[in-house]
From TrEMBL:
This is Biopolymer transport protein ExbB. It comes from Novosphingobium indicum. Pfam families: MotA_ExbB (PF01618). It comes from the Bacteria. Keywords: Cell inner membrane, Cell membrane, Membrane, Protein transport, Transmembrane, Transmembrane helix, Transport. It is a multi-pass membrane protein. The accessory proteins ExbB and ExbD seem to form a complex with TonB. InterPro entries: ExbB/TolQ_transport (IPR050790), MotA_ExbB_proton_chnl (IPR002898).
Amino acid sequence: MLIVDILAAAGEAAPQNKFGFAEALEQGGFIAYATVVILGIMSFGSFYILFTKWFEQSKIMRQYGAVRTSFWKAPTLKEGATKLEKNSAWRQIVDDGVKAEEEASKLKDPTESHDWLHGSLARSESSINARLAGGLPFLATVGATAPFIGLFGTVVGIYRALIAIGLAGSASIDKVAGPVGEALIMTALGLLVAVPAVLAYNYLQARNKRIAEMLTGFSTDVLANIASGGAVKPAVATTAAGAKPAPAKPAAAPTKS
C-alpha cells in the first residue's frame, strides 16, 4: 500500500503535458478544428482521386495490349470491335468511327466526308481525354491552396500567442508555447496535404499524356483503315497476324578453282 500511495502521489505531482496535438486543437478552438477538418477532407479526396485514376489509367493501358494483338487481326472494324471490352476507350473510338463512316457516306463531297470522319474520331478522342482528366483540377487546387489554409491556422496561432503575451505582461514560455506550437502544427499539416497532391497531379498528368498518344495513334490507324476500305492496317498487326517470313536467299555456288 505504501508503494502504491507513493506512485499515485508521484503521478499527481508529475507535470501534465499541455502541448500535445489534442491540447493544441483544444486551445485553438473552432478555427483550429475547422482547419484540420478542411485539410483532412482535402487529403482524403486527393488519395481517393489518385487511386481511382491510377486504376482507370492502368485498365486502359492493359486493354491496349488486346488492341495490338487481336483487334487488327479481324477482317473488318465491326468484327474487331467484338474482341474489345465493352465501354472501353478503344471500343468507343471504333464504334464512333464505324458510325461516322456510315454517316459520311451520305455526304456528296468526298472532302467533306473525310473531314466529317476525321472530326468525329477527334471528338471521340477528346471526350476520352476529358474523362481521364476528371479529378485532376481538384488535385491542383489542393496543392495550391492547402499551404495557405495551414498558413491561416498559423496566423491565428501567432495572434493568440501575442494576445497571451499582452495579457501576461511578459513573454513567458508557458504562455507562448501552446499557441506557437499550434501554429507550427497547422503549417506542417498544410504542407503534408499539399505535397502528395502535387506529386499525384504530376504523376497522373504524365500517364494521361502517354494514353493520349496511344489514343491518337489508334484513332489515326482507324481513320486510315476506313478511308482505304480496310486495306491499310498497322505494321504491328501484320507482324502479329503471323506474316510469312521472307524466303532465304540461296547460297552462292562455290567457284571452281
